[in-house]
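The authors assume throughout that readers already know how a fold can be written as discrete tokens. A single example would do more here than another paragraph of explanation. An entry of this sort, consisting of the sequence and the corresponding backbone structure tokens, reads as follows:
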Amino acid sequence: NRIIIGIILIGVMVSSTLGYAIFSGSGGGNSQNSIKYNEIKFTKNVNNYWEFEVQGQKFQTSYNPLETEALNFSIEINPNYFSGKPLYYIDDNIQAREELLYNIGRFSQRAQEVCLENRECIGDLVVKNCDDNVIVFNSSQEINIYKERNCIFIGAPYSDQVLAGDRIIFKALGIQ
């Protein structure tokens, strides 16, 4: 009986050690904290953001490209779209705005909150129209990202606005 119990205990210890080694995520690229997408490595940092590098510049987003792939997006944009021009924004989600400005705002001349022409404005904001680069976050039932002239409209439930903003970041950087 002692030999059988000893063999069973050794088997349990060996299998649990092997299971931990195989399934713990320490196997390099199989980790939940690291993915590779279009030859770009995305790694989760201590603040739970996905960090990655494009053309020698570091970026970070709340979501990775695999999580944003399914979002319908037919707008053609790249970093040059924002380069050297002011970037205006209208938002109701501070995190979505800050993430977009951190990653895309660096290509623009400056960033400023504005009010869009023919909309009700709260506060003393400059009024702009779609002749300028304006990114507009709107609350809506489902995610809908579209462009009218130079305005990019991001319609999404409040909880998905960061996700939709990250999709724009990946598209602008040429990742998706």
About this structure: The mean pLDDT is 86. The two ends are 61 Å apart (CA to CA). The helical segments are 2-23, 65-68, 79-82, 94-103, 161-172.
